[in-house]
Amino acid sequence: MKPEDRVEGRHPMEEFLRMDRMPHIWCSGCGIGIVVTSFIEALQKSGLDPNKVCVCSGIGCTGRVAGYVKLDSFHTTHGRPVPFATGLKLANPELKVVVFSGDGDIVGIGGNHFIHAARRNMDIVVICVNNFNYAMTGGQVAATTPIGANLSTAPYGNFEYPFNLPYLAEACGATYVARWTCLHIRRVTKSIQEALQKRGFSFIEVITPCVTLYARRNRLGDGLNLLRYYYENSEIRHGADTRTLDIGYQGKIIVGKFVDIEKPTFLDCMNNHLRKVLGDKYQPWGVKS
Amino acid sequence: MNVRKKSADPKGVLTGVHYLDGDYAIAEGALAAGCRFFAGYPITPSTETAERFAERIPMVGGVFIQMEDEIASVAALIGASWAGLKAMTVTSGPGFSLMMENIGLACMMEVPIVIADVQRGGPSTGLPTLTGQGDMQQVKWGSHGDYEIIALSPDSPQECFDLTIKAFNLSEMFRVPVFIMTDECVGHMHEKVVIPPAEEIEIVERKWYEGPKDKYLPYKPDVDLVPFMVKAGDGYRFHTTGLTHDERGYPVINAECQDWCVRHLCDKIRLNADKIIEYKEDETDNAEIVVVSYGITSRVAWKAIQDARKAGIKVGSLRLITIWPFPDKRIEELAGKIKAFVVPEINLGQIKREVERAAKGKVPVYPVSHCGGWVHNPDNILKVIKEAAK
Amino acid sequence: MIYFGELKEKKGIVNIIKDRCKGCSFCVEYCPRDVLEMSEEFNVKGYHPPRVINPDNCCYCQLCEAICPEFAIFVTLREEEEREREKEISRP
Questions:
Q1: What does CATH list as the number for C12-90?
Q2: Model ipTM?
Q3: B197-224: per-residue pLDDT in tens?
Q4: Cβ neighbours of B75 in A, within 8 Å
Q5: Which candidate from A21, A88, A283 shows the least CB-CB separation from B250?
Q6: B137: number of CA atoms within 13 Å, CB side?
Q7: Which tens digit of pLDDT belongs to each residue from B20-74?
Q8: Which CATH number fits domain B4-205: 3.40.50.1950, 3.40.50.970, 3.40.50.2300, 2.40.10.120?
Q9: Exposed (0-12), middle (13-18) or buried (19+): which is A94, by Cβ within 10 Å?
C-alpha cells in the first residue's frame, strides 16, 4: 500500500481481512498472525489480482487462516488442503492457490498428499506454520516435535525423530524451498512474494512460537522469550544442503532459501506431453490461446 | 424450481449405438453430462471408468488426474467443483470407506459432486473381483453427523449411462453429492448402450449467483432451499468451511446455528424428495406380494417374479432407481394393499430394514439375503415369494 | 558526515488500535527507535496495550506493523508540512 493511501483509524490490511471476524482465536504471543501479516504484505507487493488468489487451509490453529483472509478461502478437512488446492488449481489454472496450514496438518496427517503434490510439481504455494506440536487439541506430540520436548502425549519427553521439512520438500521435487522463523518478518514476506510470483510447487516453512502449550509445558517462557531464542539461535544459510537442517530441542535453526529452481509444472507436462502424442486432436487445458 | 436446463455439450457426447460395460457407460454418461474433471484412484472393479475417462478427456478438454488415494480424490473434486467444473470419481468398498471424510465436507460445503461406487463383497478387502451390494447403508450413513445425500442404482450399462447424467443433474440442482450405487456385475457386464444426440440430452446447471458482489451469501437458502453458488476467482471473496456455519459461511459454534445448518442440509433433500425419487413398478395394482429390488438383483428377481406368476401367485415388482432418499410413501401405500414384501439383495438385509421401517409393521417383510460373491439363484427368491404368499 | 543527497529521513505516526491488542509486547521489544512501551491501562479484552512514548523517534520503518499478530498497530507517514509547522510551534 502506498504511504499516501494509509489513513488513521484504518489498518492498511483491512481490505484483505475479514474484519467482521476479528479478534482472531490465536493466543497472545502466537506467531500465526505475524505470518498472515507477511502473507498479505507479500500479496500486495506481488501485484497479483487478489480476486484470483485462493487460500486453502486444513484443521488446527493455522487452519483458521482461511477464515480470516478476505479472499476466496476454503477451510477444508484435516490434512486435505493440498489435494483440495490441486482440484481448485487444475479446474481453473488462472487461479493462484495458496495452502496455508500447520505442520500437523500438512506433514502429519496430510504428509502423503504433500509429497505427491511436490512430486507432480503442482503449481501451488504451501505455507507451513510449524509450531512443533498439535496446538488446537491441547499440545500433543507432532511429526515435527524436537527430541526431548515435553508434550501432553509425550509426558516424559519426545523420543521420536522429527521431520526435516525442507529436506522432505526438496527430496519430493519442490521447486522453491525456504525456512524462516516468524521473527524474520521481512524475509518471510520476500519468500512468500517470490513463491507467489513463481510457477511450481513452492514450500515455505515458518517456525512460530506456541506460547500456551509448547512453551508452557517446556517452561520456555512467553512469546518474547521464544522470539529471543529465534534471534540468538537462527542462522541464515542460503542454499544450504537441506540434509543438514534438522532442528534439535532449543537448538540451532538454520534458515534461508534453500531451493529455487525452474521446472515444468504438472499442467505444463500434461499439455506438452499430450500435445506431442495426440497432435491436433488434443484440447489443451488452461492454456490461453 | 429455479433451475437452468439446456442440451448437452456435443464435445463430450459419443452419439451412437455401442457395446459397453457398465463402468465405461458411467464414463460416457459423465462426459455427456458435461463432467470435465476426474480425480480417482484405481480399485477393482471400478477402474475401467477411470481408464475410459483418461482416454477420452484429452480430446474433449478437461482434466484427469490419478490421485494418491481416495481421500485426496474427493478433496480434489470439491476443489474443482468450487472452481466451477462438474467433477466425479469412481471407487469400490475400501476406497469408499476412505472417501467418507470428504463426503461429509461436500455435504457441509454443499458442493455438487458425483461418486460412483461399483460395489464388491465386503467388509474390508473382501471380494475384490466379485459382486456385492453391501454399501447401501454406508452411502447414507458413512460420514459422521446428520446429512442427506442422493443415491441411484442402475441395473444395466444403459442405465449406468442414463443415471450418471441424472446424477449430475441432481447434484447440480441440489448442491449435494450424488452416488451411483452400481456393483461388479453391472460394472463388468457388456450390453448395448444407446447414446442419443447431444441436443436430446437434458442437462441441468447449478444456479449461479448474479447479484452484487458484496451481497453474496453462500449459504442463504433460495425458495427451493438450495443456495446460489459462485466460482472461485470471480471476485466474490467468499469463505466456506466444514465447521457449522451461518449464511455467510462463517463458523458459528453454538447449538442454534448447528440446528439451522444441519436442518437446512437435511430439509433441502427431504422436502424435495418427491422431485428426486424414481422407481419402476410392474403389476403392483393387484399384487399380493411385492418384490422390492434394485441394481443387478432386480434382474435376477425378474426371473423369479415371472416364475411365481406362472405358478399363479399375484406378484408385483417395485424396482428402486433412487435408493436415497428412500421412497417411504410408496412403500407405505403398497403396505396397505398387499400381503407381504420380499426384498432380495446381495447383503444381509440393508434395504429390507428400510422397507420394514416404511411399511410400519402393516405387513411382513421377507428378506432374501446373500453375502456377496455372486448373484442370487432366482429359485431362492421364488421360494421366499411362495412362502410369503402362503 | 555522510552525505545523503536529497534523501530525507521519513517520519511516521504510530496508530494503535488498542482494543485489538493482546498485549504480546512484540512491537515494544522490536521497535528499533524505542517509540513504544507497554501501558498500565486495560483494553476491553483485559490486556495492556502499548502506548507511544517517543513519537518523534518513529522513522516509518513499519516493523511494529509487520510484527503485530493482531493487526492492531500501523504507521502512517507524517507529512512534511506538518512537521515544519510543528517545528514552528515548538520554536521559542
A1: 3.30.70.20
A2: 0.96
A3: 999 999 999 999 988 998 999 999 999 9
A4: 76-77, 80, 83-84, 86-87, 113
A5: A21
A6: 14
A7: 999 999 999 999 999 999 999 999 999 999 999 999 999 999 999 999 999 999 9
A8: 3.40.50.970
A9: exposed
